[in-house]
Automatic annotation (TrEMBL):
Superkingdom of origin: Bacteria
UniProt xrefs under InterPro entries: LysR-type_TF_proteobact-type, LysR_HTH_N, LysR_subst-bd, WH-like_DNA-bd_sf, WH_DNA-bd_sf
Record key words, sorted: DNA-binding, Transcription, Transcription regulation
SUPFAM superfamilies hit by this protein: Periplasmic binding protein-like II, Winged helix' DNA-binding domain
Protein family according to the UniProt entry: Belongs to the LysR transcriptional regulatory family.
Keyword DNA-binding listed: yes
Protein name: LysR family transcriptional regulator
Residue span, HTH lysR-type domain: 1-59
Lineage: Bacteria, Pseudomonadati, Pseudomonadota, Betaproteobacteria, Neisseriales
PROSITE patterns reported for this sequence: HTH_LYSR (PS50931)
Organism: Parachitinimonas caeni
Gene3D superfamilies from the UniProt entry: 3.40.190.290, Winged helix-like DNA-binding domain superfamily/Winged helix DNA-binding domain
């Protein structure tokens, strides 16, 4: 027996004096209401109602029980209503997790607009280049790149991160400009060190830029790279390529301003690199949270515009 439900049914039966009326209120049948009240009576060890010609009448014990539990039932109902209202409000604190580069360039610039839209919202941004455990680290939303492995998380695809090959004008003037992926073998390449990554950079012939587009699925062109510097930090990768240490593959959104300003040059534009998906992930129990849904909706729209805005800049560069 669901004791709380039985108590609620009993209170309504006492107030309405009819099992049938309460059955309609709870969208069930009169026998089901009668069975629930009988189960509560068996649990209490006494009769709550006296059946009379004019309808249900509380027994003396039932009257005492009603007077004692009605405030309890009303308090529980108010607590549930208040809880539901809070979940439906975009208010309180939401904890975000993002890598250093993504936090600096994509999360933080949009925060003023997010907080202006939702005045009762507070944001706690945790910056970490490792993949955090949402439950252990008490994170509401984490921004993640690449294929997702944890099927216990809710995931919303926010867009894709286009990767580009870049170097400084000074580096290219000194060492030459590679015109095909195979020519990277003779250059200093800066390796972005991640778990389970090889030192192969893979390209595909880009039919939108190539002089002789190939029909069908592009053939992958793997290139084994070499260089004297590697890093697991996207920010360090950007700084290294800007300092002229070599050629790098990097997310376009990280260097679009550098390309536009002429600090970096786009290379190998006749070739494409596989895009990296960007997701916002949250735990399953966050499904009904209005604040989490609102933040994910906001960043999905913001990033769609942001990532689309880089395409003309990149396409026109070089």
């Amino acid at each position: 027996m669901n004791e709380l439900k039985a108590m609620r049914v009993f209170v309504r039966c006492a107030e309405r004096g009819s099992f049938s009326a309460v059955a309609r209120e709870f969208e069930t049948t009169q026998p089901n209401i009668s069975k629930l009240v009988a189960a509560l009576e068996a649990h209490l060890g006494g009769k709550l109602f006296v059946r009379a010609v004019q309808g249900l009448r509380l027994s003396p014990e039932g009257q005492q029980y009603y007077s004692e539990i009605k405030p309890v039932v009303e308090a529980l109902t108010r607590a549930e209503e208040n809880f539901g209202q809070l979940r439906n409000q975009v208010s309180g604190t939401v904890r975000l997790s993002a890598s250093q580069a993504f936090a600096r360039l994509q999360v933080l610039p949009h925060l003023p607009a997010l907080l202006a839209r939702y005045p009762q919202l507070q944001v706690d941004l945790q910056v970490n280049d490792r993949a955090v455990d949402l439950i252990e680290d008490n994170i509401d939303i984490a921004f993640r790149f690449g294929p997702l492995k944890d099927s216990t998380l809710l995931a919303r695809r926010l867009g894709v991160s286009r990767r580009v090959t870049v170097a400084t004008p000074a580096y290219l003037q000194q060492y030459g400009t590679p015109l095909a992926p195979a020519e990277l073998a003779g250059h200093e390449c800066i390796f972005f060190d991640q778990p389970n990554t090889s030192r192969d950079w893979t390209y595909f012939l880009n039919p939108t830029r190539a002089a002789s587009p190939q029909a069908g699925r592009p053939r992958p062109i793997p290139v084994r790279i070499a260089g004297r510097f590697q890093t697991n930090s996207p920010e360090a990768l950007r700084q290294a390529v800007l300092s002229g240490m070599g050629i790098a593959q990097i997310s376009a959104w990280m260097v679009s301003a550098d390309i536009q300003a002429g600090r970096l040059c786009l290379l190998l534009q006749d070739y494409a690199i596989a895009d990296t998906p960007i997701h916002a992930v949250s735990t399953l129990n966050a499904r009904q949270s209005a604040k989490i849904k609102a933040v994910i909706d906001f960043y999905e729209a913001a990033l769609r515009e942001e990532l689309a805005a880089t395409q003309p800049v990149l396409g026109d560069a070089g």
